[in-house]
Specification:
Elements (H helix, E strand, L loop, with lengths): L6 E5 L3 H19 L4 E5 L5 H11 L4 E6 L1 H13 L9 E6 L6 H5 L5 H10 L2 E11 L7 E3 L2 E5 H9 L9 H9 L6 E7 L2 E7 L1 E5 L21 E6 L4 H6 L1 H6 L8 E6 L1 E6 L7 E3 L2 E4 L3 E13 L2
Parallel strand pairs: 1-2, 1-3, 3-4, 4-16
Antiparallel strand pairs: 5-6, 5-16, 7-10, 7-14, 8-9, 8-13, 10-11, 11-12, 13-16, 14-15
Helix pairs in contact: 2-3, 6-7
């Protein structure tokens, strides 16, 4: 078995338009300077982190460092939640953010400066935040877990566009939003929150744990990753003009005050699509499929290194 003080370092070489790979020699030197004992592995495909985490935990690793963006962290979280060796919250993750959006770290004040992020990990302070669990209702797909924000509809459509604009950095999400306006259509849905159901035509349904997504957008009212509740934004049938004139509000948080947005808090939400064409579903900026889903909260289930 591996010494529990040894770190398993996962590097996504494609994160930040290849920045992770370029910066790895510097990161490796700093980890050695700060006296980390570690083993590093480079991911080779989009879901590789899930497999790597499961293998690492089976080998005795309890401390993981994520070097990449929000998608890399998302897959590490899923690897932790899908393994059966340890209680998930007994595994702690440190994050060195090198990605397109770097949204999750903004909530927790983890800096993009590499040495400062390593210092936080070295200091050894951890916190436990809530996670969301997405279950598909009409097929046998493996559940998907998320640590930041998930959504159905337009935000998923934007994620499907973002890949080709990643050279813009965080602005890729804004470009994807504007590019998606011409072809996206709202969808018919029934959303069940607690004992109440809402039949509506929606632009998107957003399920928030943390404050930022989509390169700094603030899409839910007052998310708190430690309160055991989702923050929900149910965006109604926006016109293209509605989206254009409210673009700045996507970033300053005022979109939740627009008349076509309803806000809720809940521990569980069910989203059923009432039309043949099923909109995209995204979790932490990763496309995960489409269909009817139920999403439940898992309090204090993700342990991470923090300031």
């Amino acid at each position: 078995m591996t010494d529990s003080r040894t770190w398993f370092v996962i590097v996504n070489p494609t994160s930040g338009n290849g920045s992770s790979k370029k910066l790895w020699p510097k990161i490796e030197q700093l980890l050695s300077t700060y006296e980390f004992e570690f083993k590093q592995v480079f991911t080779e495909h989009s879901k590789h982190s899930i497999e790597l985490v499961q293998r690492a935990v089976n080998q005795g690793y309890k401390n993981i460092i994520s070097i990449g963006g929000d998608g890399t962290l998302h897959n590490i979280v899923n690897g932790i939640m899908l393994q059966n060796t340890l209680i998930p919250s007994d595994i702690s993750v440190g994050v060195i953010p090198i990605g397109t959006g770097n949204d999750w770290v903004k909530t927790h004040g983890i800096p993009k400066d590499i040495e400062a992020a390593i210092q936080i990990i070295k200091n050894g302070k951890t916190a436990k935040q809530d996670l969301g669990k997405i279950q598909f209702l009409k097929d046998s797909k493996t559940p998907v877990y998320f640590n930041n924000l998930a959504g159905v509809g337009f935000d998923g459509y934007v994620v499907s566009k973002v890949e080709k604009y990643k050279h813009f950095g965080a602005l890729a999400y804004l470009v994807g939003t504007l590019m998606g306006l011409s072809s996206y259509k709202s969808f018919k849905t029934e959303v069940t929150i607690g004992s109440k159901s809402y039949r509506t035509k929606s632009l998107m349904v957003l399920i928030g744990l943390c404050q930022y997504s989509g390169g700094g957008m603030q899409l839910t009212k007052s998310p708190d990753p430690f309160d055991g509740q989702f923050d929900i934004s149910l965006a109604g049938d926006f016109s293209k003009w509605d989206i254009l004139k409210n673009t700045i509000k996507l970033f300053n948080g005022n979109i939740v005050n627009f008349k076509k947005v309803q806000c809720f808090t809940t521990e569980r939400i069910k989203i059923e699509i009432a039309q043949k064409h099923k909109p995209y579903i995204q979790a932490d900026g990763e496309l995960i499929g489409n269909g009817d889903i139920e999403v439940s909260i898992l309090p204090n289930s993700f342990s991470f290194y923090t300031k």
